[in-house]
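Hi V.,

You were right to ask for the full record rather than a summary. Here it is.
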Amino acid sequence: QTDFGGGGMWVEPLDKVVQLDKGHAVSFASNIRHGGHKVTAGLRYIFVGFLLYEGHVEHDRRLLETSQTLRAQGNIQQAIATCKKALLVNPRRQEAWNNLGVLQRDSGLYTEASRSLKTALEIDKHYVEGWTNLGVCQALAGDTAAAITTGKHAVAINAGDFLAHYNLGCALAQNGDMVLAKDEFSASLAINGLDGETYQRRGEQLLLLGEVKEAIADYRVAVKLQPGSAAALNDLGVALYEADLNVEALETFRAAVKIEGAHGEAANNAAQLAAFLGQ
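Predicted structure:
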């Protein structure tokens, strides 16, 4: 290991970085989540080999990838069916149970989704993505208390996961806990400061708390990071109106309508403010 510093491979079930000397190798089932550890100096070359035994090809992995492709294409029912096929091949694959739960959640099947996500967590209780998705499902189903409990557990497992903080913030906001929600959105932005939706959600809490100037600042960043978002522009317009910046607010509402003519709230806000200003 004289040619580089750092390196190694993080393995999720071990929750540690495996360090190897030059010429050594590590082998593992490819469905185990892993990732390269940062090289801090020098140059590191990695040789990777895939071993497929005839008759033992990872059909579940291929089916799972196909299911994800179908979801991206909007073929949700086909994606669900394909995901279930993957689980018939390998019922211990937590990613498949997680993906099935997300597909069911997006279809409004919250009971089935919760069952699938909990099955994923029975396989791997440290699976942060599963906990995060379960919390979202619980919030959508109206069980805010459970969503908050689940979200806190996800954050406790991995405090560096920005989505865990974001989704906990959403659950807290849904429960009316504005200060705590704001704090979670801030924690999420400390990890990933380029997510426009998180700035937008924190702006909502700031506006509700009466911190109008700070809300406007967040909404401006949200609009910059999401230039095609009529919702972000509408929210900025509302904050500008609350700050008595009516002319800019009207321009902002109209910009939102220009992007999305069917955005009823922005159109209504623009019409009412224009009438108020005599335009």
